[in-house]
């Protein structure tokens, strides 16, 4: 179906809120860890382990998101995800037990998985033009990082003034309520399925090797970035000898640079071939992350963090776009597959890097992110070498 201008605007707004919802949930885990531990009189390590339920909840809907969107309407999926978040928050407020908290974390994680999968697919679906698609995906990803800038400030202020840990889930419910308002009268585009032959029979369009290289690159990229951000504060304090508040400032420098990059790079991909953008960004990103991990000098690290954040910002969204352009008709299962591969990195990064840290030390824990980031670069180069996107959609758009 054709997407009218006003409908496209609403779809974009819904996608932005979907990404903001997921970003709000994931980027604030560290902030709510202490208040939740204190409320239930549990060790922070125990609560941290419970948050793995969130990652699992996030993973499953992304894994089967393509199937869900073909079986159920997008509006229904978003409505259920929002309603579950609000309902569980109400129940948790009335009966704040540790068991119910674990179940709530799992289910809200699943809701975030749905919003992530649907948000990504909506942007792909309403932007058939390659340049618009790439630009819109990168700009939509900005709202994930934007949540990571806004929510910690709000929660930090509220927790400083003795607000309950439940305030985090009140905020998630408020975002869910906004999503319900947006989808209430929205007319969603149809979910694309297989191409049809003249006799009406479905044609299964082959994905090609490039998509699998994109999937590998997405996994390696997410894994490397999460390992890097996990061990960066410790590295800054132990190896670079920065005080805690200065180390925190350096971390903020990275996220601020990434948010800026997401904002600006959604214009860049309109004028630069997507393949060129991805390869160039990954090369500069590799040089930057390697410098950070192996040159323990504060000024150099500060410059490299700005560079890494900026050039790293558009790669994941760019990979989703590049993968979707490898076929004429991009089904939700393709988007879901790319997101799933990235989510595998989310599932394993903490345990694998913690094992490396325990057995080989901080240097190799951080440098493991550098090594895997190089793998992501290789995956991007391989995808570009056998890409069908340029042939299918024209070089001007890529």
Explain what you see:
The chain has a two-stranded antiparallel sheet with strand order 1-2. The model has no long low-confidence stretch (mean pLDDT 86). Helix content is 80%, strand content 1%. The longest helix has 31 residues, at 130-160. It contains 17 helices and two strands. It has 398 residues and is an all-alpha fold. It has two domains: 5-186, Growth Hormone, Chain: A (Up-down Bundle); 208-397, MFS general substrate transporter like domains (Growth Hormone, Chain: A, Up-down Bundle), CATH 1.20.1250. GO terms for molecular function: transmembrane transporter activity. Belongs to the major facilitator superfamily. Keywords: Membrane, Transmembrane, Transmembrane helix, Transport. It is a multi-pass membrane protein. This is MFS transporter TsgA.
